[in-house]
# Entry
Amino acid sequence: MTENPHQHDISRLRIDRDAPTTETPERRRSWRVWVILGGVIVVAALVVVATGLLKGPVEVDIGTPVLTYPGQANAMLTASGYVVAQTKASVASKGTGRLMYLRVEEGDVVKKGEIIARLEDSDVIASLNKTKADLEVAKADDVGASNTLARTKQLFARQLASQADLDAAQANYDRVHASIRSAQAAVEEAQVAVENTHIRAPFNGTVLTKDADVGEIVAPFAAAANSRAAVVTMAAMSSLQVEADVSESNIMRVQVGQPCQIVLDAYPNKVYKGKVHMIVPTADRSKATVMTKIAFTNRDAQVLPEMSAKVTFLSSAADTIAASAPFLTVPSAAVVTRDGSNFVYLVQDGRAVSRSVGTGQSLGDRVEVVRGVSSSDRVILNPAAGLKDGTAVVQKTH
# Structure
């Protein structure tokens, strides 16, 4: 039988297992890389699902650590206000004129009666000199009138002068004396006018602002255009008190003499002792508050008028309050205790981060933290039991 050249050799389809393989080591390593990479992707997907990173952000309440003072354990009430000088004045002149001398500037300490400024006084000094001259003339006339009256009396006694002559001499003497009194009054008036050009400190105090400069016109009540009413504003620093508004519903908890702690916004780490000096006997109907005035008992030079202040009204005696350093506290609702350890959840870059903390004394609804957080941190309040590190969070809107 003739062999068909197009017929395939079935024997060629047999696999020769003894023949060498064609797969290279590089190809085997490539398959291993793909297998490992696939495993990593699967593990990462499981982590994402387990941590809830694919979910939307969880809404949480957020609080902040704050500095708390020891005396606030006895706090009955808190209020905000400002430091105000109870003795304060805008010092002006009683006369009108150009300011020619000013010897003080802001911060200078002056004494009562001290000349701090002076107006131009050439015109009033000239008037004073004229009245003094008129007084000298009147005194000179008085000498002649006295001598004339004395001689006339002698002549009248010897019947050498008539009653009319005596009456005329007496009238001239009285007129001259009246002119002397008038001249003396004119001199006093001119002296007052000169004194009115001297601007003196009305009490011992400190210059707060300078309201006029040399060369400007100073007038009472600033009656003239482009004139100044006050030259300087000054205050007695010893009279500084905090004026704080207390709600009408809480004013019954405040009493005169009640101890207080004062913290200025400018110095948040420093506490001043104080006591209630006065409860102003009227209310502000627009704010429903009553003003209280709190006097400092340990004021220093750092306390300045118009500073913002926070006042804590205390229940204990003032002499038992220690003005010690404040400590950092967080809301008690932020502290979580698990397995004997305390920690809080912080909000960092929009995610929850757990932080171990050390706690100290409790103060109302807050607790002292001795380590683990700072005043710039934000803590999550009442964290849910399922909250985990890395969970996206957002502050609740109330």
